[in-house]
Amino acid sequence: MSSDEIRDVQRAAWAGLAPGWEKWDAIIMDQLRPVSAAIIEHLAIADDQQHLDIASGTGEPGLSVAGLATGGNVVLTDLAAEMLDVARRRATDRGITNYEIRVCSAEALPFADGTFDSISVRFGYMFFPDLSGATAEFTRVLRPGGRLCASVWVRPEQNPWTTIVMQAIAAEIPLAPPDPDGPHMFRCAAPGHVSALFEAAGLREIAEWDVDVHLVTRSRAEYWEMISEHVSIAAAALQRVDRGARERIARAVIAGARRYERDGRVSIPGVARCVAGMK
Ligand SMILES: C[S@@+](CC[C@H](N)C(=O)[O-])C[C@H]1O[C@@H](n2cnc3c(N)ncnc32)[C@H](O)[C@@H]1O
Fold it and tell me: For 8-47, how does the pLDDT look when each residue is reduced to its tens digit (9 = 90+)?
């Protein structure tokens, strides 16, 4: 697939997932909050920070940065306008006004060199057609001394919140191993993968560290519903199953989540990796 084709597929996929992300916003944001906290702590946001959020989706961590940088400005960018529409509604609900929205791809940023003090990329890297090209763009628009911090998912085995569903789907239909060079949720899972991109782009003080997360739902049925409606790999695979298979998958997922039930809730762990560097 060409880079343009990859972008078209991604744009359409995320446009389709936007309603799920909006519907399950509270649960998704609770799950991913520790990652935002780690990114924001590393970026050391000042009151007048000029910040760029890449692959911002429904707005995080950009809107949280905007809430801290009340004398600064945050630009939210993403390929999918439908995801950014949700971000706009979330900003309005929170009374956040010091932000702008630009629909654009990570590899072609419509900003001058040295524009930003900091850049965040929460769970976007693995979907870019050209990881090196995107990293070069981030480096270009950072000011000297500016910081970049991204997060990616580590291996599926450490993220049962997705593997429960993927194993249930694999019991119904063959799932081909993902193209290692194509967009995929776990494409950047290897330790050092994103650090090497940062190094090649000329960034310094590179660090990477893991962050634990928990996906907490009120019931196992709610867990199944929300995963099937917002997780990219699950939603894509579920498009290929018929109604009967979908019902069997739902039953298997709901049974598989039983071991994570605690105090009337379901809490399923996962691990993300943050990678940071400075220009
Ligand atoms: C998992 S979501 C992450 C959203 C948000 N940062 C968060 O953590 O909640 C991935 C986002 O990457 C965006 N994306 C995919 N390919 C992209 C590209 N080439 N350039 C910019 N954004 C892209 C998708 O549209 C989607 O909104």
Answer: 999 999 999 999 999 999 999 999 999 999 999 999 999 9
| Mutate which of 3, 33, 39, 79 for ligand 1 pocket (most atoms within 8 A of beta carbon) | 79
pLDDT in tens, 225-251: 999 998 888 888 888 899 999 999 999
**How far lies 190's CA from each of 154, 180, 210, 266, in Å?**
7, 11, 12, 28
Any atom of ligand 1 within 6 Å of the Cβ of 121: no
At the topology level of CATH, where does 3-278 sit?
A: Rossmann fold (3.40.50)
Domain extent listing, the chain: 3-278
Element (H, E) at 268: strand 265-278
Rounded to the nearest 10 degrees, the angle between the axes of helix 3-23 and helix 25-43 is 120
3-state secondary structure (DSSP) of residue 178: coil
Give the position of tokens 């480096």: 139
Whether 106 is in the pocket of ligand 1, judged by its Cβ within 6 Å, is yes
Q: Are 144 and 172 in contact (CB under 8 A)?
A: no
What is the token pair recorded at 212?
């634990």
Q: What is the pTM of this model?
A: 0.96
